[in-house]
Amino acid sequence: MAFSSEGGVPAERVAAAVNDLVEVRDGLVRLRGFLPPPPQAEQSSSRPPCAAELMDATMSKLMSAMATLGGSGDIAGEVDAAGRWTSVAESADPMVVRREGESSAGRTRRRRGGGSRSGRGRSSNKRVAATLEDGHVWRKYGQKDIQNSPYPRSYYRCTHKLDQGCGARRQTQRCEADPSNYDITYYGEHTCRDPSTIIPTAIANAAGAASDGPNNNIISFATGGVVVANSSRLAREGTTATTTSAATQLSSSWGTSGGGGGGDDVFSSSGERFMQWDELAAAVGHVSSVGVTSSTVGSAPAAENDGGNGDTAAGGGGDGGGAGSFPSSPSAGSLGFVVGPLGSIEDVDDFFPFDP
DNA sequence: CCAATTTGACCGAT
DNA sequence: ATCGGTCAAATTGG
Q1: Where is there biased composition of kind Gly residues (predicted)?
Q2: By three-state DSSP, how is residue A325 classified?
Q3: Less Cβ around it within 10 Å: N or C end of chain A?
Q4: In chain A, which residue ranges form alpha helices assigned H by DSSP?
Q5: Nucleotide nearest to A103 (CA to C1')
Q6: Are A163 and A192 in contact (CB under 8 A)?
Q7: Which chain C positions have some atom within 7 A of a protein CB?
């Protein structure tokens, strides 16, 4: 629905294009994370085009294009005609609260959360990628052979689940049709914060741009807030966002920001390192404190594994000491989890599952 | 020694 | 009874 063939272009083509754009965007986002902090001090009137700014501009163009292609602008929407980009909202679910303390000695395990607790009001976001690497650090916790598929499915959770209670998960499986690609489905949202997160940089970088940048049509993060200007979709929907806090992090915007979505939970896939920018903007307009959710591994976790067998390596990737150990959970206060007034955060307890 | 992965067991849903 | 998802002991790697 999101992508309809406007005019003569078949929906699949559009979907494919959007899919590519998504990838491009991801790449940009990631790249931005590596940019050196620009001369923030001198945000003088005329500065040489800083890489970050260029990226911002590029990004905004991208978003614009995506919005256009997406018609309704619901980029987070679904497109499965081409089998590539899907976002499904699952229905709410009966209570699922369990926390078995189980000291687990011996092999006696008691009821673990098993089964498809799919219906947690969670949404999933499926996509196809050539690599399992997506900028996040995952820890594999299971693998299963699936009935119809020749390839097993691997289950990952965010490395920071214990650390920070990050509830992001993903499932990967080699694409049947195209074994060189992976089918990756994301569930939940990253609420973790990583030191190497790219957001701060992004914010810093854009800080200058916001004020006097020659670009309009740019989404930039200023230290004081987020300023969104002239995004076709935003314009269309009349969303204007200006925000607030000195965000050092933006956390997921679960909520459906008011208007459109309605009850279903709209969520920014973790597949996208960030939530859709425009969604972010919208959300941000409603929430006051924003936190960044994306965590990125600054140092590429090595490898791509994959070679022949794939499926296994992936995730957490080696790392051993690297990004893995990051006990940044000092003051929860600074974590800025936003669980705001937004509606649908159905399982908050999933984010703060336990207490030590 | 610690942390990540492997792998079979367990469990809820179908 | 079967399937898919998760847990956690055992194993492996750094």
Answers
A1: 307-324
A2: coil
A3: C
A4: 11-34, 51-70, 161-164, 199-212, 232-237, 277-284, 332-335, 348-351
A5: C8
A6: yes
A7: 3-10, 13-14
Q: State which protein residues have CB closer than 7 Å to strand C.
A: A 100, 102, 104-107, 109, 112-118, 141-148, 153, 155, 157, 169, 171, 187, 318, 320
pLDDT(A102) > 60 = no
Q: In Å, what is the separation between the CA of A201 and the C1' of C6?
A: 36
Q: What is the dihedral angle through the alpha carbons of A191, A102, A170, A294, rounded to the nearest 10 degrees?
A: 20
- A20 CA, B14 C1': Å apart: 36
User: How far is Cα A160 from Cα A181, in angstroms, rounded to an integer?
Assistant: 26
- Which residue from A81, A171, A63, A56 is spatially nearest to A118, judged by alpha carbons? A171
DSSP code for A272: S
If one counts every other C-beta atom within 10 angstroms of the C-beta of residue A50, the result is 19
CA pair distance A268, A337, nearest whole angstrom: 15
3-class SS at A295?
Answer: coil
Closest nucleotide to A145's CA, by C1' atom?
C4
CB-based contact A110:A99 (threshold 8 Å): no
- Tens digits of residue pLDDT in A243-267: 333 333 333 333 333 333 333 333 3
Pull the structure tokens for residue A284.
């941000």
> Per-residue pLDDT tens for A169-197?
999 999 988 899 999 999 988 888 754 43
Structure tokens at A21: 């754009």
* Chain B nucleotides covered by protein, CB below 7 Å: 2-14
Q: Angle at the Cα of A223 (from A220 to A225), degrees rounded to 5?
A: 65
Q: How confident is the model at residue A146 (pLDDT cuts 50, 70, 90)?
A: very high
